[in-house]
Amino acid sequence: MPNSGLTGGRIRQTRLSKGLRQAALAQSVGISPSYLNLIEHNRRRIGGKLLLDISRELGVEAGLLSEGAQSSLLEALGAATFGQTNIVTEVDRTEELVGRFPGWSKLIAWQQQRIESLEQTVTGLTDRLTHDPQLAASMHEMLSVVTAIRSTAAILTDGSHLNPEWQVRFHRNLDEDSRRLAENAQALVSYLDATDEGQAAAEPSMPKEELENWLSARQFHIGELEGNDAINVDALLRKQAQLNGSVTTMSYARAYLKSYKSDAKAVSHDRLSEEMRLNGRDPLRVSQALGCDLATVLRRIATQPNQKQAAGIVRCDSSGTLTFCKPIDGFALPRFGAACPLWPLYQALARPMNPIRTVVEQSGHRQVRFLTYTIAQPVVAAAFNTEPLIEATMLILPDDTPQERAEPVGSNCRICTREACHGRREPSILTDGF
């Protein structure tokens, strides 16, 4: 954080950057050059009217001289140095850079933010190209049509004599397949154009995305199911015009709302808030006080309305497939494909009913720390000769324990920058040459 004891040094740096002599500045504000010299070397305190007069003569805000550069600008410049091992940066002089060259500093910070934004765009597009089912189906259809056209053309050009009736058939096949190819190509271009224009967010291509977008608009809080055990889930779903009504989407939504209704019946948000006030941030102590399982408490914490503290949640089944995600700023979640195998979520699958508390730090330009609470437990009652179904739940909270060691994790291998990770399955697309 900026050091308020360096006000004199900032005055001196700003004066020199503007080419002003010490005597000239002292005269303009009505003090002696020797007194200004003491101020600039932090041997005299300064404030009030004198600080305002000096800032006016230097053409800068008084806050920039007394408090230093804005913390957000300093953080952005610090993020620009992350991962740079072949360039030596004077990190300890960052505040001096901002004080002397505020315009250049803002430009560097803007470029850093732009780089991060472009990397996120490339990451999302790569993930979509690799796993998007609609793209995969379109490419499969186009390859099938191209193969049919090639086979038909080979028959017509191999020199064999074909009677007129078969020639007409083959020509008709070529015409029909060509039209199919053109239609499929146009549909693919339209789909990609919609993605480029940002329409994909409004019209998600996958049912799970559609459900999560609907829940996000509600802040993942279903008020109709709070304290109302009599409401019918299917009746509630029929009233939701935002959902397109496809069989798959409604199936996902029905399963989620039934789970939400069960959680709301077990623990009301009022009781949860009271126990969290008494037991702090420890979900395990809260669950013991409430007399319910830990996974229910984790889910209820993530769906509290008007949260003072952001909370994300991730759930997966026994296969490791992510079944539900509520995002939290700074913690990257894979849109398609597998997640990082080092997540506590997957560690919990190997240790059912064993709660795990872990501080994690994701790779990236801004290595943000998060506090996670995780549990894996059966989702159906035990029965003879029946394998138990295990679901893992991971609550993600901003971390405020900087003294604890954080475990390094990623989002998924394709976009993780940690090359020496022992859990890597495939090379990252974010190489040095990217």
Rounded mean pLDDT score: 81
List how many beta strands DSSP finds.
Answer: 6
Roughly what percent helix? 40-55%
Our measurement of the CA-to-CA distance between the termini, rounded to an integer number of angstroms, reads: 32 Å
Largest β-sheet summary? 6 strands, mixed
State Rg: 30 Å
Residues in β-strands, percent = 5-15%
Point out poorly predicted stretches.
1-5, 196-204
Total helix count? 18
Q: Would you tell me the structural class of the helices and strands?
A: alpha+beta
Identify the notable features of this structure and list them briefly:
434 residues; alpha+beta; six-stranded mixed beta sheet; 6 strands; 52% helix; disordered N terminus
Write a structural description.
The structure is a single chain. The chain is α+β, with helices and mostly antiparallel strands. Helices cover 52% and strands 9% of the residues. The chain contains 18 helices and six strands. Strands 2-1-5-4-3-6 form a six-stranded mixed beta sheet. A hairpin with a 5-residue loop joins strand 1 (312-316) and strand 2 (322-326). Helix 14 (247-266) crosses helix 17 (294-302). The protein starts with 6 loop residues before the first helix and ends in a 25-residue tail after the last strand. Residues 1-5 and 196-204 have low confidence and may be disordered.
